Automatic annotation (TrEMBL):
Keywords: Membrane, Transmembrane, Transmembrane helix. The lineage of its organism: Bacteria, Pseudomonadati, Bacteroidota, Bacteroidia, Bacteroidales. This is Transmembrane protein. The chain crosses the membrane at residues 12-34, 40-60, 80-97, 103-125, 132-149, 155-174, 186-204.
Amino acid sequence: MKVLANILSVVFHPLLMVTYGVALAFASTYLAVYPLQMKLLILSGVFLMTAVVPGIFIALLVKYGNGGDLALTNRRVRTLPYLLFVASIVACAFFLLRMLMPFWLVAILFGTAAVMLMAMGINFVWKISAHMIGIGGLLGGVMGVAQLYALNPWISFIIGFLAAGCLGTSRLILKRHTPAQVYAGFGLGFIGIYISSLLSYFYFFI
């Protein structure tokens, strides 16, 4: 069970959630009409900025005296890695703006940065699950965009909630978090990104 739990924790790592979200947008919204070459270019840029670059910096921080491990098990050493991740998300948001992506997608990224800053603040006093923030945010974004454009991606919802349940269980099996930390992480991610996606609606009136 622990092997499977570790695999799920890697597959649904927080650093990968932005890439998954953009890929899902390309697959299930009107962005599907974009040429494949453009989709791959944008996805490559998103993956580089929000997964590869922060992942390398976090690995270097751990190696050269951050005092933690790659899983950032100790909440007291999460501040700088979180800030690095937030910076990478903001950079990615501006990249998407330059690539003329719709504002709702950019708004979700800014919402993700805000949620991670809130999680960083919470971690000063209490450990919250970054994995569950990530997958909760992914589902919140799907629900927000579905509401904006009157979509019904029920298959994505079913798969997403099943994945969230499996991931939450894996974090408990590995004893990385308590049930409260798992639920709180999912709730923060889901609500934060859902609201940010809906707030993008006001952009159309500006």
